[in-house]
């Protein structure tokens, strides 16, 4: 039965992602906002809702390892897994402004999270992300979003979409986004829940399930949205979805979670944080020539597979 639910869920994931991207593209055209910013703001934030639910629930239950581990694992999977898979089939364009602003912000947040988690800024006996640290993360998120939209208003851009038809009505585009997100996230929930049941039946430990299936499972919306966006020739939206999701995961999700409960991550190792930082840097390295191609995508995916094997062993 679980396998049937997983199969149906996969169909829902694809359909939901398709509707979400169509609605987002229409809004980008209507308001002349770049594909990247729409990908980061609407698609990125929307597809990160599962991470928000998992991390916030972990904080409420006093399980900081789940709250932080989910974000670390998801950010690694977003870049190495999702961006890697997408680039294998559709070379992803990277603009100069991405290299100068969005990607460096993502790198900086990854480093800040690591320093907070290892007690770099304080002399407390227990490294942690306290409520005041969370306020700093939230402030960074607000400034990032404000600057992104402000820059687009000052420098109107064309979207990548090759379709020339007029954008749909705002109510229809918003409806597609809402319905698409609903179907996408619900399908992902069913997929992850049933995958966990199968994993437990096969004898996988809870630790491995948490850092692999849960972290990767909550990133399925990003995977679906990025691949669908790339299929529709909107690779900037795919990139914005990944970078925006990673920024959202650290700055907003952990920022909010730390307001509920002080977060510490005793069981998240320096290797995990180092891989997360390396993943944030990879688009900067691979995109130096203006795009992330198939070779770079295969390298990303290979690194992710190697890291996953390390975790399981």
Summary of the model, kept short:
78% of the residues lie in helices and 1% in strands. With 313 residues, the protein is an all-alpha fold.
List the helices and strands and how they pair.
Elements: H1 2-31, H2 35-47, H3 49-60, H4 64-89, E1 92-93, H5 96-117, H6 131-154, H7 170-201, H8 206-217, H9 220-231, H10 235-260, H11 270-286, E2 291-292, H12 294-312
Helix pairs in contact: 1-2, 1-7, 1-9, 2-10, 3-4, 3-10, 4-8, 4-9, 4-10, 4-11, 4-12, 5-10, 5-11, 6-10, 7-8, 9-10
Question: How would you portray this structure in words?
Answer:
- With 313 residues, the chain is mainly alpha-helical.
- Helices cover 78% and strands 1% of the residues.
- It is built from twelve helices and two strands.
- Strands 1-2 form a two-stranded antiparallel ribbon.
- Helix 3 packs parallel to helix 10 and helix 4 packs parallel to helix 11.
- The longest helix is centred in the middle third of the chain and has 32 residues.
- The relative contact order is 0.25.
**Overall pLDDT:** 81
Main β-sheet, in a few words?
Answer: 2 strands, antiparallel
End-to-end gap: 29 Å
* Estimated share of beta-strand residues: under 5%
H/E element order: HHHHEHHHHHHHEH
Helix content: over 70%
Shape: globular
How many H/I helices? 12
According to DSSP, the number of beta strands is: 2
